[in-house]
């Protein structure tokens, strides 16, 4: 079963999708819910994800936990790769993945991802900024429109993404392949960047992300240090 539902408005597609998931979700099933007006969206690690009505997409996908025999960190990466590839095909620009799972297009965040386990399934929540132009409160954010000056119809884009996602997971990749692709598309990898580490600014170079969800950075002491999300912040 593969089905995508549309809601005119909702608090959070990650919360609403459970109402559409069958009691027994088969391994091959894919259930999706999307809206262009999400009022209480959630981002990674407790952050909020706000979207302007009718300008951006909030979509949640429910799959069986048996579908991905990986750690959550790898599923996070895999989802980011799929979203990144979809936007690359759409825009003909090569986005980067900002660890752990933000999509960066021309230095601006245009998409974010939230994974949650609910009942017997994995829920993957994805926000894609499509048409929004005003990001005064979020200077590091942008939309596909602000970065390309091309307008895409959000309803059509949501349906196209759902089909793209379904096709991608029908041809699953190995953990090694996922890590290789991630590290080849990692934002600011092998570049000198400024990081905030517990309130102290320090130069460092991202070297890799690993299977456990850690980011490895070479700091000013010329040693590699690993960090989990929220333990370090890139300043750019």
TrEMBL record:
GO terms, molecular function: biotin--[biotin carboxyl-carrier protein] ligase activity
Residue ranges annotated for the BPL/LPL catalytic domain, each copy included: 1-173
Annotated TM spans: none
UniProt entry keywords in alphabetical sequence: Ligase
EC number: 6.3.4.15
A GO-annotated cellular component: cytoplasm
Uppermost EC category: ligase
PROSITE patterns: BPL_LPL_CATALYTIC
Keyword Ligase (UniProt): yes
A Pfam family hit: BPL_LplA_LipB
PANTHER family in alphabetical order: BIOTIN PROTEIN LIGASE, BIOTIN--PROTEIN LIGASE
Protein name per UniProt: Biotin--[acetyl-CoA-carboxylase] ligase
């Amino acid at each position: 079963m593969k089905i995508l539902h549309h809601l005119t408005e909702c608090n959070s597609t990650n919360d609403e999708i459970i109402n559409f998931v069958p009691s027994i979700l088969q391994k091959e099933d894919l259930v999706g819910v999307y809206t262009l007006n999400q009022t209480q969206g959630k981002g990674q690690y407790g952050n909020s994800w706000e979207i302007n009505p009718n300008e951006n997409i909030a979509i949640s996908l429910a799959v069986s936990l048996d579908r991905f025999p990986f750690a959550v960190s790898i599923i996070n990466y895999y989802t980011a790769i799929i979203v990144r590839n979809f936007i690359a095909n759409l825009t003909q620009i090569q986005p980067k993945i900002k660890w752990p799972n933000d999509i960066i297009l021309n230095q601006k965040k245009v998409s974010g991802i939230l994974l949650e386990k609910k009942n017997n399934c994995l829920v993957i929540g994805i926000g894609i900024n499509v048409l929004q132009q005003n990001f005064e409160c979020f200077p590091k954010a942008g939309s596909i429109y602000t970065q390309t000056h091309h307008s895409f119809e959000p309803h059509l884009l949501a349906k196209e993404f759902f089909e793209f996602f379904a096709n991608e997971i029908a041809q699953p990749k190995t953990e090694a392949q996922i890590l290789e692709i991630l590290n080849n598309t990692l934002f600011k990898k092998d570049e000198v960047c400024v990081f905030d580490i517990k309130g102290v600014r320090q130069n460092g170079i991202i070297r890799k992300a690993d299977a456990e969800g850690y980011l490895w950075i070479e700091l000013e002491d010329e040693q590699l240090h690993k960090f989990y999300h929220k333990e370090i912040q890139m300043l750019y």
